[in-house]
Amino acid sequence: MSDAYSRPVTGHVPVLRLGDVLLVTLQGDLHDSTAQQLQQDLAETISRTGVRGVLIDISGVEIVDSFLGRVLAEIAAQAKLLAARTVVAGMRPAVAITLAELGLTLPGLTTALSTEAGMELLSQQIPAYRPGGPRQESP
């Protein structure tokens, strides 16, 4: 199996595995059933593959409401329990303003201005994985 392969985790949310990182690209609205399936599939994929990071690109999302904020925070919490870090990239200024006005802090998430910056951030935060050795969470 190749390090980079494309696999749709759900019918609506594309996911690309790039080495030790899953790249999730959100486009438009995320409905309840799609969000729940995405959370479940990401947790299973992290567990099965041992990836160390999840990068969620929200540049295609016009509006982040409290529902999507909660979904992002839950994905980050689940990923952290499975020893993976989560970065959200591509947040539009209007989305950041809305999140601040709603008082949503998105605990457990780090943000990056672009997907490239998010990948760089994850590559700095993810310690090298040694096969056969224990996975260690860095502080």
TrEMBL record:
Matching entries from Gene3D superfamilies are given as: STAS domain
| Species | Streptomyces azureus
Q: Which InterPro entries match?
A: Bact_StressResp_Reg (IPR051932), STAS_dom (IPR002645), STAS_dom_sf (IPR036513)
Q: Which Pfam families match?
A: STAS
Please report the stretch or stretches of sequence annotated as the STAS domain: 11-122
Protein name in the entry? Anti-sigma factor antagonist
